[in-house]
Amino acid sequence: MSSFPELTFFDYPLVYFNEIDSTSDYLKVNKINHPLMVVADYQTKGRGQYGRVWDSESGKNLTFSFQFFPEKLEIDHGFKISQMIALVLVEVLNEIIFPNRAYIKWPNDIIINDKKVAGILIETTIEKDKIEKVIVGIGININQKKKSKVLPYANSLANLFPEINWDRIDLLNMLIKRLELNIRKNFQGDFQSSYNQQLYKIYEVISILYKNQEIQVVNLGADQHGFWLLDNQSEKQKIQIKSSQEIIYLYK
Ligand code: BTN
Question: What is the structure's pLDDT at 250?
């Protein structure tokens, strides 16, 4: 990424790589003690959630990670980080793709036109019951035209909105500004209702595979701990999902 301009994250210049194993691993391994953002054109070992692979064509997309140090953020409030980051992404994208809409698919995939365009990987370090350090890795599919073999349900912004000129730097710059603003607020506010408002298929009936059974449930949104609440109407019971590994989405 030789032509990258001098962007900063909390006054620290961004670190750029043409190629690296993973931008999140760079921050994990180097144990730097100030906020920092690392951007790469290509990752040889890009990681998704639950050890999945994050596959992204070289030089076409945004793959970046940043770290910050919240002040006195209780472990119990950890989901706020996920909510805030997902909200920043949908809000910025919604300003660009208006009147179309980006949504958050619980817990923090970013969906447009039923396709995943961005993924978020959050890793925290805990000290004395507080979240001491957060490493956030974000992958946004921007100008990639080819479909990914390992991520078949994904698509890119340029494929979905070819009429828009997708500039990776402009988008990154918009995201940095919004992220800094929100991180400075140190998670004081409550993101609950804004998050649920942006949730994909909120209050709609959706099909999922749960405990090896296909069931129809109403998506009631996430609670403040980040658990996903579903209303299983046929059984007249509510289901609380703690990890996306507990279910398989049978909708798009
Ligand atoms: C997911 O949806 O599974 C999360 C994907 C996160 C991918 C990003 S790309 C930049 C950063 N470095 C990585 O190795 N992963 C994250």
Answer: 84
Alpha helices in the chain (DSSP H): 23-30, 79-97, 157-160, 168-184, 192-197
Given ligand 1 and candidates 54, 60, 120, 153, which is best to mutate, with the most ligand atoms within 8 Å of its CB? 54
Given a contact cutoff of 8 angstroms between Cβ atoms, the answer to whether 18 and 42 are in contact is yes
pTM: 0.95
What is the 205 CA–ligand 1 centroid distance (Å)?
Answer: 29
Angle in degrees, CA 125, 126, 129, rounded to 5: 165
Residue nearest to atom 11 of ligand 1 (CA): 137
Give the per-residue pLDDT at 236.
82
Cα(46) to ligand 1 centroid in Å equals 6
